[in-house]
Design a protein that fits this description.
By secondary structure, the chain is of the alpha+beta class. The chain is 49% helix and 21% strand. The chain has three helices and three strands. The chain has a three-stranded antiparallel sheet. A hairpin with a 2-residue loop joins strand 1 and strand 2. The N and C termini lie far apart (70 Å). This is Flp pilus-assembly TadG-like N-terminal domain-containing protein. It comes from Prauserella endophytica.
């Protein structure tokens, strides 16, 4: 009887750990995705002003776009990679989530990833009334 109760107790603890840590890991993934999207939007604001003033071309200054995206990531305490290709800024954020209950069974952290991309827009892009 003691072995049965102990087995059931360990099973319930593992199920609770999966529920709690799984939900918190999902929240960490959503947060990483939001940070990546926001960093990409920050980078997409780095227009090549000389080209815009010369002929109205909307294109990115790649070095400035990387800098703005990395600066945003640093401001929110995230780490990630920034790529600028053509007129698109792509950011990938990796964030470790430290488990609370699953650490009891040897799973100390879960790595979550988020990805975001943005490109510059000309003019106002909101919905008109």
């Amino acid at each position: 009887m003691t072995a049965f109760v102990l087995t059931i107790l360990i099973g319930l603890l593992a199920l609770t750990g999966l529920s709690l840590d799984g939900g918190l890991a999902l929240a960490s993934k959503v947060r990483a995705g939001g940070q990546a999207e926001s960093a990409a939007r920050a980078g997409a604001q780095a227009l090549d002003l000389a080209a815009y003033r010369a002929n109205g071309a909307v294109r990115l200054d790649p070095a400035r776009a990387r800098e703005l995206a990395q600066r945003y990531l640093a401001s929110v305490g995230a780490t990630g990679t920034v790529e600028v290709a053509g007129d698109t800024v792509t950011v990938e954020v990796t964030a470790p989530y430290r488990t609370q209950l699953l650490s009891l069974v040897g799973i100390d952290d879960i790595r979550t990833h988020g990805r975001g991309a943005a490109h510059p827009q000309r003019g106002v892009t909101g919905i008109e009334p």
